[in-house]
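Section 5: illustrative case.
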């Protein structure tokens, strides 16, 4: 997106039609078996580490336990706190998708996309499912511009598809542990996305979520931070 905004700024004085002209970013609650697999992978990595610590102490007299805390933090970030590329099937989307950002590609600048905050809502549409996290994707619209509008508007989407979609896939943000939900449950989501302090090309994402069951009972709210690398 940075590159696209810069290209528009460089050539906006020319009488070209800019394509795509508009874009939207979506998120939706999902179900995914990856939530279990990533937890298994994390547990195995930690088991291997503690086995290594025990062996180096027993056979070489070297105590590596002082590295356990940073190693644990590193593995937790990699396995449990970093988003994943995945091709979701539409059946894995268990709630109503919501738009978190709309972008006018003809007028937006890099500064406009340095950070993003959005308050959105969604409702669960699947019966007796596991809320395993969020899926994110985007679509773009080809509308031309005011001076040269497109004769026929075209939309290209990277949403979950039965035909495996596009090479873009979707970004998946997994929750540990998952939460039991059912049709009619309502969620309010506070979404934030900003640039990583370590590398401006990487992103940090935070979901704050309040979930109310169809019975009216509120479940404990949560906030979860993810890394997009």
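Designed sequence:
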């Amino acid at each position: 997106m940075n590159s696209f905004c810069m290209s528009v700024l460089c050539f906006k004085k020319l009488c070209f039609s800019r394509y795509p002209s508009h874009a939207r970013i979506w998120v939706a609650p999902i179900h995914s078996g990856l939530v279990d697999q990533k937890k298994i992978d994390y547990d195995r990595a930690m088991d291997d580490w503690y086995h290594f610590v025990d062996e180096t102490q027993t056979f070489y007299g070297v105590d590596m336990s002082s590295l356990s805390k940073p190693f644990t933090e590193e593995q937790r970030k990699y396995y449990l706190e970093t988003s994943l590329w995945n091709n979701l099937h539409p059946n894995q989307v268990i709630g109503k998708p919501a738009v978190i950002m709309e972008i006018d590609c003809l007028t937006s600048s890099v500064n406009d996309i340095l950070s993003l905050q959005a308050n959105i809502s969604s409702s669960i549409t699947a019966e007796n499912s596991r809320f395993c996290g969020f899926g994110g994707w985007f679509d773009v619209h080809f509308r031309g511009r005011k001076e040269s509008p497109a004769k026929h508007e075209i939309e290209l989407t990277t949403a979950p598809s039965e035909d495996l979609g596009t090479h873009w896939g979707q970004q998946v943000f997994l929750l540990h542990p998952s939460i039991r939900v059912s049709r009619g449950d309502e969620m309010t989501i506070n979404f934030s996305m900003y640039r990583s302090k370590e590398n401006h090309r990487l992103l940090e994402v935070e979901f704050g979520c309040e979930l109310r069951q169809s019975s009216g009972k509120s479940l404990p709210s949560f906030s979860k931070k993810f890394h997009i690398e």
